[in-house]
Specification:
The protein is an alpha/beta fold. It has 15 helices and 9 strands.
Length: 325
């Protein structure tokens, strides 16, 4: 590759989804379509239904429904990553956000694709029965937010020093947001109808643990930084069913994980999934600015629409000196 900086992949999760994401690439880039179809095939009948709803002008389920957002984010993150790896990209490390870590683990060989798909589908089945609620991003630190949390609401993610995401069931979440607004904090809903990364999802963890214990897992072949421990994923953690089963409940420590990743930099940080939300956060990290990191999105801005995706991806592949074929 012509660039000198080591690449590192950032794989987005819940909240990154938008209607039509990846559909332009699927239509215009057969190599991407082949890798997406590999995931849909592993999903069986559910994959056929997912594909037709994803490509439909008027989908049966909204994109923010957990039965759409989660499997499609996993599929697009994985397919983009698989494509650039197959074309010769050698990432120095990967960091996934929420479901993005599951895609990263699959790309790193912790799980084979059929096993990962089983975990994702099982989890979605469990999540679909979870109490409805949501997630809200607060322009405040974790310390600012914590005193205002009502029972049933938890810290769901730390995306930046003053971007803390809370998660919980509807009524306590509404009361918490009310209290935070009264305290003068800006609150913005995250696109999710499920209270991801809150304790209310503990039954999902318990159910997932048994399945994960039955599946083969290996040490990663590409270094992974854990969004849950904010440190390099150890070989012991990689094969621990409980580590993966706890993902729906444990908070995502994206900002501290980014700091851990950047200690090995500088990197060309590549958003390997829909949009450019993670590199937007990464640009603000002092360790990224200070070390002269560069940033690249593989799909471009959601505002550009599906018709521009292939053009954007082609330009990104050229910058990475990947052999487009």
């Amino acid at each position: 590759m012509s660039h000198t900086m080591s690449p590192a992949l950032l794989l987005p999760g819940q909240g990154a989804q938008y209607q039509g994401m990846g559909t332009g690439l699927y239509r215009d880039l057969p190599e991407f379509a082949a890798r997406v179809d590999e995931v849909f095939q592993a999903m069986g009948d559910a994959g056929d239904e997912l594909r037709s709803d994803w490509l439909a002008a008027d989908p049966r389920l909204p994109i923010d429904d957990v039965r759409r957002s989660q499997p499609l984010l996993f599929t697009i993150d994985y397919a983009l990553g698989k494509l650039v790896l197959d074309w010769g990209l050698r990432p120095a490390a990967m960091l996934g956000h929420s479901i993005g870590e599951m895609a990263a683990a699959t790309l790193a060989g912790v799980f084979d694709l059929p096993s990962a798909v089983r975990v994702v589908q099982h989890r979605i089945g469990q999540l679909a029965t979870a109490p409805t609620g949501g997630m809200v991003a607060i322009a405040a630190t974790q310390a600012d937010v914590t005193p205002h949390l009502h029972p049933g609401v938890d810290i769901g993610a730390i995306n930046a020093p003053r971007q803390t995401v809370i998660a919980g069931v509807e009524e306590p979440l509404r009361k918490t947001v009310e209290a935070l607004r009264e305290a003068g904090f800006t609150c913005a809903p995250v696109a999710s109808r499920t209270p991801f990364h809150s304790a209310v999802l503990q039954p999902v963890v318990d159910a997932g643990r048994h399945l994960l214990a039955s599946l083969p897992a290996r040490a990663p072949e590409i270094p992974l930084v854990s969004g849950y421990t904010a440190a390099s994923l150890t070989d012991v953690e990689a094969v621990d069913p409980l580590y993966w089963a706890r993902h729906p409940v444990d908070p995502v420590l994206f900002w501290p994980a980014l700091k851990a990743l950047l200690a090995g930099g500088p990197y060309l940080l590549i958003e390997c999934g829909p949009g450019q939300g993670l590199i937007t956060l990464a640009r603000r990290h002092p360790d990224a600015r200070g070390s002269g990191c560069e940033f690249l999105s593989l799909t471009g801005s959601p505002a550009a629409g599906p018709d521009r995706e292939a053009e954007h991806f082609t330009a990104a592949a050229e910058r990475l000196a990947l052999p487009l074929r």
